[in-house]
Design a protein that fits this description.
The protein is 26% helix and 24% strand. By secondary structure, the protein is α/β, with parallel strands linked by helices. The protein contains nine helices and twelve strands. Strand 10 (240-242) and strand 11 (248-251) form a beta hairpin. It folds into two domains: 3-32, no CATH class; 39-270, 4-Layer Sandwich (Nitrilase/N-carbamoyl-D-aminoacid amidohydrolase), CATH 3.60.110.
Length: 294
């Protein structure tokens, strides 16, 4: 923001401060250089595995990940519960510990191509089964995982356990959060990830209303990267990169498409979209959290 405009805002705050509030005195402003660009290339792969086996489902992504790497992708997002798709098994029958054989396979792909990768699978921990997304680094290490919080009836009935946390991971690309499929039907998951600083939300999603993908990006001022199993011709969910205005700036048009968008995480928002921005606007714009009712 230009220095004069900032000074005008400060004067307005001084003028409108009600009695009993803190009044600023001796305020001085110094113009600084804008932050350096933080350009990253976000990619989604639009592929539905054939279901020959859990391992084969994962291996089908190898040439597509390689193609994304050739296009200089920094982050690649895959679909929901990849080992489970089409194999005719129940969630607990494809679940594995994390890290385990299939997460290790995707970790090797991330390391081979030097990129960040988000994959999703059913996770086993003791007797519990979770729907879990993992974030893998370009060194092949597990950066972190997210367990799906919002479960549809089908997963509840299949014995899947909901997660209860909203981790955001600080990477060399920026702050990355993850949500999974049904999470996107509700505002709370993306909002909590945003409140915790997420700049990018990776979203493996079996299917959803694409308007909700747009809403989650627009209302939180984050980039959302979705990867779906919905046919692009079906007028339903799309594999896409959504920008801060909720616009899909890159989207898959057919199976095995790789949609990539280069974005600048340091770029300021245009004024209209800046309204309601909880990242950069003053915290008093944020509605208060209601007290629990007893």
């Amino acid at each position: 923001m230009p220095l004069k405009a900032t000074q005008a805002i400060v004067e307005l705050h001084l003028q409108w401060a009600p009695q009993g509030k803190v009044i600023w005195r001796g305020v001085s402003l110094t113009e600084t250089s804008p932050p350096p660009p933080r350009k990253v290339r976000l990619a989604t792969i639009h592929h539905r595995p054939a279901g020959k086996s859990p391992q084969a489902n994962c291996e089908e992504y190898a040439p597509l990940i390689a193609s994304a790497a050739k296009q200089n992708a920094d982050l690649v997002v895959l679909g929901e519960t990849v080992p489970y798709v089409g194999v005719g098994k129940k969630p607990h029958e494809t679940a594995e510990v994390i890290p385990g054989p299939l997460t290790n396979y995707f970790a090797s792909q991330a390391k081979l191509h030097g990129l960040h990768l988000v994959a999703c699978l059913y996770e086993r921990e003791g007797k519990a089964v979770y729907n879990t997304a993992v974030l893998l680094g370009p060194d092949g290490q597990l950066i972190g995982k997210y367990r799906k919080v919002c479960l549809p009836h089908s997963e509840v009935e299949a014995g899947v356990t909901p997660g209860d946390d909203y981790p955001v991971f600080d990477t060399k690309l920026g702050k990355i959060g993850m949500m999974i499929c049904y999470d996107g039907f509700f505002p709370e998951v993306a909002r909590e990830l945003s409140n915790r600083g997420a700049e990018i939300i990776a979203w493996p999603v079996w299917g959803c209303n694409p308007l909700l993908g747009q809403a989650r990006a627009c209302e939180n001022h984050v980039y959302v990267v979705s990867s779906t199993y919905t046919d692009a011709k079906s007028d339903w969910m799309i594999s896409a990169v959504f920008d801060h205005a909720g616009k899909p700036i890159a989207k898959a048009e057919k199976w095995d498409d790789i949609a990539i968008a280069e974005v600048d995480l340091s770029q300021r928002h245009f004024w209209r979209n800046n309204l309601g921005d909880f990242h950069n606007m003053a915290q008093w714009h944020r509605p208060p959290t209601p007290s629990p009712q007893h």
